[in-house]
Amino acid sequence: METNNQKEPENADSEKPTEPSPSASEELSSKAVAAYEWWDNLATFHPNDPLWLGGVKILVRVIGILVLLALSPLIILGFMFAFLAVA
Fold first, then answer.
1. In 3D, which of 30, 27, 19, 62 has the Cα closest to residue 43?
2. How many CB atoms lie within 10 A of CB 57?
3. Range 47-69 average pLDDT
4. How far apart are CA 41 and CA 57, in angstroms?
């Protein structure tokens, strides 16, 4: 019977490359992508959806547009303050 006399190095785990933890911007980006995909999936029309569900999805899209329109003046104001603070 043959035996394997080779030993693995004691620090074998430390030699393996570890993936760096994601930065704050990558985490924020992944959360934004996940939120967009959830919203898009919620409002996407599918051929097997009943008629009433299509109406609800149209309402969801209208609410999303209204929310974005309501936020846009605040975002523009925030950009203006940011540019004033930097200048």
1. 62
2. 16
3. 89
4. 10
